[in-house]
Design brief:
- With 315 residues, the chain is mostly helical.
- The protein has a single domain, classed as Rhopdopsin 7-helix transmembrane proteins, CATH 1.20.1070.
- The chain is built from eleven helices and three strands, in the order βααβααααβααααα.
- Strands 2-1-3 form a three-stranded mixed beta sheet.
- It is found in: Cell membrane.
Length: 315
């Protein structure tokens, strides 16, 4: 194809919900709006409680606070536009808007993968080397680990997004997804993308699979240490400190790996959308619920904050 035949694409059309009836779109809008509001309120609550309560000023809750910030950002990037496509049929997104959405999707996604690995390392040190835990996980070390996790999102987001949107788009602009993810957008490119796809696979291994293997290795050592503990009470307390994180990791990585590591032909576009909904919409809502309902310290801290704010008669 010659340059003269290329059509300049100034906007994209998100077509993931276009075949649904108006009634079903309205139901999905109410469902996703509810999930969105619960996600924002739950994560904001986690941030406020872990900041305000003196008993939660330790590395585990410092990293949990960072995770809540990431989840809020992740949701703000994806869900508002998705709600717009459902309720006002605004399925178009500008070229710049699509690039911006993809950039921050990569940024928050890569940062969350690295932060989850950092949280696993924190639990590993706390359980496997408790005597040196205050030294290893000092305030300075925690700040550096959190900053490194956040910074890890910049290179992958910058390289991937810049590379994708430097390709020519020859006219078809219908993105078969509910947001500007890399695979459905790259399918619209009218140029050889083999080198980019190799780089994308490498980035996926580095920022999804490698942190997952670090988490897996950490929990192998953690479980080995727990099983060697002599008392049942010690085992219960040790496992309770990492069970919430383990559940969050399982939810996030199971869907992310199924989405990005399965062969293209083995999953239909609709199946990939469902998997994407799981880790972009559902998991961010479940994280604060898991950490609040399964964590006695967070529940106790929440009661203390409510007591100080609204008075003892509320409890």
């Amino acid at each position: 194809m010659t340059w003269e035949n290329w059509t300049i694409v100034s906007e994209f059309v998100l077509v993931s919900f276009s075949t649904l009836s108006s009634e079903l779109k309205a139901l999905l809008f109410l469902l996703f709006l509810t999930i969105y509001l619960v996600t924002l309120m739950g994560n904001v609550l986690i941030i406020l409680v872990t900041t305000a309560d003196s008993a939660l000023q330790n590395p585990m809750y410092f990293f949990l606070r960072n995770l809540s910030f990431l989840e809020i950002g992740f949701n703000l990037v994806i869900v508002p536009k998705m709600l717009g496509t459902l309720i006002i049929q605004d399925t178009t997104i500008s070229f710049l808007g699509c690039a911006t959405q993809m950039y921050f999707f990569f940024f928050f996604g890569a940062a969350e993968c690295c932060l989850l690995a950092t949280m696993a390392y924190d639990r590993y040190v706390a359980i496997c080397d408790p005597l040196h835990y205050p030294i290893i996980m000092s305030r300075r070390a925690c700040g550096q680990l959190a900053a490194a996790s956040w910074f890890s999102g910049f290179p992958v987001a910058t390289v991937q997004t810049t590379w994708i949107f430097s390709f020519p788009f020859c006219g078809p602009n219908r993105v078969n997804h509910f947001f500007c993810d890399s695979p459905p957008v790259i399918a619209l490119v009218c140029a050889d993308t083999s080198l980019f796809e190799l780089e994308a696979l490498t980035a996926t291994v580095l920022f999804i699979l490698f942190p997952f293997l670090l988490i897996l290795g950490s929990y192998v050592r953690i479980l080995s240490t727990i099983f060697r503990m002599p008392s049942a009470e010690g085992k219960r307390k040790a496992f309770s400190t990492c069970s919430s994180h383990l559940l969050v990791v399982s939810l996030f990585y199971s869907t992310a790996i199924l989405t990005y590591f399965r062969p293209r032909s083995s999953t239909s576009p609709e199946g990939k959308k469902l998997l994407s909904l799981s880790y972009t919409v559902v998991t961010p809502m479940l994280n604060p619920i898991i950490y609040s309902l399964r964590n006695s310290e967070v529940k106790a801290a929440l009661k203390r904050v409510i007591h100080r704010t609204l008075g003892p008669q509320i409890l």
